[in-house]
Amino acid sequence: xxxxxxxxxxxxxxxxxxxxxxxxxxxxxxxxxxxxxxxxxxxxxxxxxxxxxxxxxxxxxxxxxxxxxxxxxxxxxxxxxxxxxxxxxxxxxxxxxxxxxxxxxxxxxxx
Amino acid sequence: xxxxxxxxxxxxxxxxxxxxxxxxxxxxxxxxxxxxxxxxxxxxxxxxxxxxxxxxxxxxxxxxxxxxxxxxxxxxxxxxxxxxxxxxxxxxxxxxxxxxxxxxxxxxxxxxxx
Lengths: 111, 114
Hints:
The complex is a heterodimer of chains A (111) and B (114). Chain A is an all-beta fold. Chain A has no helices and eleven strands. Chain A is 0% helix and 57% strand. Chain A is globular and about 40 Å long. Chain A starts with a strand and ends with a strand. The mean pLDDT of chain A is 94. In chain B, strands 2, 4, 5, 6, 9, 10 and 11 form a seven-stranded mixed sheet that branches. Chain B has a four-stranded antiparallel sheet with strand order 1-3-8-7, with no helix packed on it. In chain B, a hairpin with a 2-residue loop joins strand 7 and strand 8 (73-78). Chain A binds chain B through residues 6, 8, 32, 34, 41-46, 49, 51-52, 88, 92, 97-99, 101-104, and chain B through 32, 34, 41-44, 46, 49, 51, 57, 59, 88, 90, 92, 94, 96, 99-108, 110.
């Protein structure tokens, strides 16, 4: 079993839709939960992170962590064609150095 | 501001040739440094990480090696490339402290071994 599981998609939605991206994990030591966006042929860009648990909101993006279910989510409201990219979840234990990445979900937002 | 440089951007090398990819970081001190590889349509595979000068941890046993000769310089090398070494190589640095997290990736090097 992989430490972090993420559905690779692709996920295709119309412009303006609410997008839900998810990851599950098995290591209960994870304390940092991150979401990255990666455009084609570019390096990943850190979108947002959550430490420990709870929700975090940044503009149209909301990250949620449910440690009891070992499940994290990223919601994108009012999705735009410019949101079309691959979204990678990632996790890190407190005091650790090895960030573990999911496989990434490819998202297409159609105008 | 934090900046991370990687070069070259694209590289085509024959099987059996050597490799040297360089990464330098600006705007931070004593970062954790990483080399990742991403195969087409795949996730990020951690190859090496370093928590200080001269300290290298290898995650994947293969014909690649890494060195950190200076605090903000990280080098990925190979003496003889294999076809399976093709991929998108990404350098990154991170800092975590008291619940805060920062990680930045470089622009990447796309390596094709022919």
